[in-house]
Specification:
5% helix, 15 strands, five-stranded mixed β-sheet, four-stranded antiparallel β-sheet, 26% strand
């Protein structure tokens, strides 16, 4: 965080802004659907009133421990390689962000989402809905038990396949303060042909890739992948937003 001085001599704190060359563009020609999704004009930030800033309140009693275990749903266990996904949510100075709501959604081990719009002819898992959530602890830590998602075709171009990934959503103090991103897995052979991954500037792509952690892997149970999420600053995680992270 840096400081600036106004005409009246007041010292005002400001967050360090990421280099524009490292920001992920909202519109990316190779990612064909951005032509329909991306705004044609620069977004205008509207002032937040008291309602947006103060609520709704995300109490701990609304997020239960089993919400973070995606492998147990509907009375059974999900099919696939169990993985522990863990990390920290940090600010631009490397300080932990406690009490942040972290939500995830993903495809199952066969590469299919439990969604009416997913027509990929891969099997659905009756014990996997692909949804989880957790609130970061006092040290900004989060963790999920899940299965490694499969790759899937998505029709962007010929023989197009998405690398394995997990979607993350982070909320600030209110639902108007939200950031969305994706976590990838190391050494995925599909990185080179995926325009969503390649929309990120090359110097920032490593921030979206998790790290395999043998130390946190659970013997005879689950592999572990570590991924820290940095909200702002020089090491900011690439987000699917064009506001430089200032909304969270």
């Amino acid at each position: 965080m840096t400081g600036t001085t106004s005409a009246g001599g007041l010292h005002l704190p400001r967050y360090h802004r990421e280099d524009a060359a490292l920001r992920t563009p909202v519109g990316f020609p190779d990612y064909r659907s951005t032509a329909l999704r991306a705004p044609l004009r620069t977004p205008v930030d509207l002032p937040q009133r008291l309602t947006e800033v103060t609520g709704p309140v995300l109490g701990e009693d609304r997020v239960l421990p089993h919400d973070a275990d995606l492998t147990l749903r509907n009375g059974g266990e999900a099919v696939g390689q169990r993985i522990l996904v863990h990390g920290r949510v940090l600010d631009s100075d490397g300080r932990p962000v406690p009490g942040a709501l972290v939500e995830v959604w993903q495809a199952n081990a066969a590469g299919r989402y439990r969604h009416v719009g997913d027509s990929f002819p891969a099997p659905l898992d009756p014990h996997f809905d692909g949804l989880g959530r957790v609130v970061t602890d006092s040290l900004g830590r989060y963790e999920f038990m899940t299965v490694k998602p499969g790759a899937y075709p998505w029709g962007n171009h010929h023989n197009a396949w998405r690398p394995a990934h997990i979607h993350f959503s982070l909320f600030g103090r209110a639902f108007t303060q939200r950031l969305v991103t994706q976590m990838y897995f190391p050494d995925d052979p599909l990185f080179g042909q995926d325009p969503i991954f390649n929309a990120m500037p090359a110097a920032a792509r490593h921030r979206a890739i998790s790290r395999f952690s043998l130390e946190r892997s659970q013997d005879n149970w689950a592999l572990a992948f570590e991924w820290d999420i940095v909200l702002r600053g020089a090491e900011q995680t690439p987000f699917e937003t064009d506001d430089d992270g200032d909304v969270a």
